[in-house]
Write a structure and sequence with these properties.
mainly beta; about 70 residues
């Protein structure tokens, strides 16, 4: 079972399996600043390398803001 991180349709490598998901998101925000406030969705899918195993998929999604509304 592997962890796969997805952002903007791209699969990103797991920087460190020992890191919590939120730590990974914060770490990746140095490359993608919009991830600093992103939501995280979790799902599972069959592994591409071993169909008998399921991978954990963590998708980072930008939050929709209400900038400029009063």
């Amino acid at each position: 079972m592997a962890r796969v991180f997805v952002y903007d349709g791209r699969e990103l490598p797991d920087p460190d399996p020992k890191m919590a998901v939120e730590e990974v998101r914060q770490n990746m925000s140095s490359f993608f600043p919009e991830l600093a406030n992103a939501d995280t969705a979790h799902s599972k899918r069959k592994s591409k390398t071993d169909p008998a195993v399921e991978d954990d998929i963590y998708e980072f999604k930008r939050r929709v803001g209400t900038k400029g509304l009063s």
